[in-house]
């Protein structure tokens, strides 16, 4: 966001208590996230870092039968064409972004934001900062942006509406890194060694496999929290056992069950803050909503909202909606409509992964490719998205309950 503001000639200050590099989860980019890095002029620096190149996502069911969604972009003729994106080690990538923001004009204040500064009418004009040296400073601003991610600073500071529990809150993610894995090595795009692999066991119980370099792979298990608690295992032992048991294909690819770092955990991560803008302030990314990590939308949504918010701020500084009760209401609505499409995509995957796979692989692959890439910010509702809405209207589904449903609803083109 800082880089986009600097491009527009808008002075910006980053208040940051962390020291970089620092650990962070969320290593995989969608296609559009890669495109946004290119639009910021960062492609050469990404290539110099030798980040793993991602051609797509392969999803394995409980007994195999994988399906693949390639990374593709829309060209000037609106035709799909192959493109690549990246996997990144977030500690290194976030440091790159931090340094680049500074190089392009951002001012850094080392400290911790404590409370927003408010006028009598409730509008925000800055933030109080506990400085790294122990002092306290007030930083005044035309617009205050909450980019604190899952810390949701704006909510805890009383600026936003309530933080509502999301659909996937009763889960826990346990993750670490491993070596000596078995990767694909072929010429086809779905056989590239640095693709994302997802292993499905059952409803909201799955694993990820994301290469970080030529040797190291990020692996994680997401399961219902009740399941994790019932096992009464340490995070490490839970992760090691699940890597061997969750899915036969995962066990085959991770034969050497030695973790390279501690096993970490994120519990109860799904939430939604519905009002995340106001007079003099706004939120971006996870600071207002997080749905489910299964298809790696996190970096893309946060980066894109940073761009959208920068555009909204430019308009505000130029006088647009300056006197409105909520000058950034249009930005808020636009972000919500995009994230609602992500919600529909993920809901359909969990409600009926079999029908979802047919839609993605057979019936409407182009529409699902667009959604996976992150092309969610438009009012267009594609035929594929409509089919996902149908799945969600029906709810969680056992195909044995109605063997003819898939053919009836999705058409004769689908065969078992």
Q: Characteristics of this structure?
A:
four-stranded mixed sheet, FAD/NAD(P)-binding domain, disordered C terminus, 416 residues, 3 domains, globular, D-Amino Acid Oxidase, Chain A, domain 2, seven-stranded mixed sheet, 21 strands, alpha+beta
What does this structure look like?
35% of the residues lie in helices and 25% in strands. Helix 10 (329-351) crosses helix 13 and helix 11 (353-363) packs antiparallel against helix 13 (383-394). The strands form six sheets. The protein has a seven-stranded mixed β-sheet, sandwiched between helices. It has 14 helices and 21 strands. It has helices at 2-7, 31-39, 43-48, 90-103, 153-156, 225-231, 235-245, 248-253, 298-317, 329-351, 353-363, 365-373, 383-394, 405-410, and strands at residues 13-16, 53-54, 56-61, 64-70, 72-74, 80-82, 85-86, 107-118, 124-131, 136-140, 144-146, 163-165, 171-178, 196-202, 205-211, 217-224, 264-267, 271-273, 277-278, 281-283, 289-290. Mean pLDDT is 94; it is low at 412-416. It is an alpha+beta fold and 416 residues long. The protein folds into three domains: 2-52 and 87-166 and 270-327, FAD/NAD(P)-binding domain; 171-267, D-Amino Acid Oxidase, Chain A, domain 2, CATH 3.30.9.100; 336-410, no CATH class.
